[in-house]
Specification:
eight-stranded antiparallel sheet, 3 helices, elongated, single chain, alpha+beta, three-stranded antiparallel sheet
């Protein structure tokens, strides 16, 4: 059995039961296409376990997808100039969202501060070293959906699964301006393991000099 993301597990089981009842009532001759579509949907919402390597000070990808753009931009959530990484989710999943770093959830937002008519799910994570990362899921399309399984005050491990986002959404990461970007636009990334950037602290810079 394909492991399914828990956010849609009950719904998909219910659909499977309905299909089975319809087949029992009317026979299998007209159901093969429905079952084929059902199997494809199960594949799209898969949730296979993955090994997350420990990478101290690394900021890892929150999704399986591609880097669209890397730039310096204004963070409307923390109101600061930040290093900004734009990511696009794979259309064919997995649709799970993973924490880009280890830390504590300090805040959650559900409305864009720049475009109030757009829905955005934003998560602020603060590390033990007080580095702050904002993860923003853009949900402008009505066909896109995101949920966060964490609450304010909870701790997250680097690469830990922390949410679900479906149908090729985009994510924007706002990082400290001192962060060192290690990824380039156009590169494919895997959630929880591929490094996008790393935190750089003043004492590390001084020791290097």
């Amino acid at each position: 059995m394909i492991p399914i993301a828990r956010e849609v597990r009950v719904l998909l089981i219910a659909i499977g039961v309905v299909l089975a009842l319809i087949q029992y009532r009317y026979g299998p001759s007209l159901m093969w296409l429905a079952w084929l579509v059902y199997i494809v949907i199960l594949f799209l919402f898969r949730d296979f376990s993955r090994v997350v390597p420990s990478q101290p000070l690394a900021i890892v990808s929150p999704l399986d997808g591609k880097v669209i753009k890397v730039e310096e931009a204004y963070d409307p959530y923390l109101k600061r100039v930040s290093q900004c990484i734009h990511l696009k989710q794979n259309a064919l999943g997995e649709y799970n969202i993973h924490s880009p770093c280890e830390g504590k959830v300090e805040n959650l937002w559900v409305i864009s501060p720049t475009e109030p008519t757009y829905s955005q799910l934003a998560l602020l994570i603060q590390t033990d070293e007080e580095d702050e990362v904002v993860v923003v899921a853009n949900l402008q399309s009505i066909f896109r959906h995101a949920t966060c399984s964490m609450s304010v005050g909870e701790k997250l491990g680097q690469g830990q699964r922390c949410g679900f986002m479906a149908f090729s959404c985009g994510i924007v990461l706002y990082l400290p301006s001192s962060a060192h970007i290690t990824i380039k636009a156009g590169q494919s990334v895997r959630a929880g393991s591929d490094k996008l950037a790393e935190f750089v602290h003043e004492n590390e810079i001084n020791s290097a000099l």
